[in-house]
Amino acid sequence: MSLPVLVDCDTGIDDAIALTYLAVHPGARLAGIVSTGGNVEVDAVHRNNLALAELLGIDAPISRGAQRPLVAEPMTADDTHGPHGLGHASVPEPTRATDPRDGAKLWVDAAHEHPGELVGLVLGPHTNLALALELEPELPQLLKRLHVMGGAINHRGNTGPTSEWNIAVDPEAAQQVIQAFTAAPSRPVMGSLEATETVRFTQDTLERFGDLARSTGHPMATVLVDALRWYFEFHEADGLGWMAHVHDPLVTAHAVTGDFARTSPLAVDVELVGTLTRGQTVGDVLGRWGREPNVDVLTDVRPAEFVEHLLAVLADGLAQVARPC
Ligand code: BDR
Ligand code: CA
Question: Could you tell me the fold of the domain covering 3-320?
């Protein structure tokens, strides 16, 4: 039995790898894709999602999400992901149709179609999920589980000094989601930077993606190689060396397999008013708040095993999935 997954993403280089993984993993079945503004503005994200879905033969509904964050001014990360979101890669102009529902409605409909079975996966800002919770407050009870890439707990940020991108873009949405999911039967799983930054793609990893493109001959593999080159260039320009932290695929693989990391319960809140720390995810490690844990944070990541798994799933999957005409 494959796991139905609704993914909400701001594609985005690492989102593109995660989408490819979801499209080809035999244990996952995409129930829908929601495009969220983040790495690039929402129309560019949506174009990427439609184009990648076409390349990968994904037939799940794809809806355009909200035009802007709930409260914050929109921001994008063109330096990190390139002006169109996929680094140096170019993708064909998509021809497939946008689902007429907005992102929030697609979340709600997918949850009702798969009550108790749907895995929600947020790989970008939480705006659409926060809007979906306004439409359907029972959403936390309808999902099997929620997994999010977001936050930096006792770890430096990658956007502000203490804030991580997906939370920093729409802190109010992230806070509303965290609060709403305290009522969920199982705690949301949060893959924050201290977990995802254990994954370091090196030159060797990049070359293995090149091998993948040659061995499978699938155009999606070439898109990933060209996108990754930009990601490496960005990380180098940011002072981190010739490597790339690839966040979203780890959270995705853990959501699908339950493997490659452990989880640890923690009370977490989003700082909304700090003049220096807005968007920080504050984790109460010593229990000073006296509150029940409300998230399970990813810990004890096994990055090398994860990278091998990722490459193996993509190699098998892209060799089998039909090439677009
Ligand atoms: C997150 O921010 C985005 O740039 C990436 O796609 C990832 O989801 C990492 O902070
Ligand atoms: Ca992302």
Answer: Inosine-uridine Nucleoside N-ribohydrolase; Chain A (3.90.245)
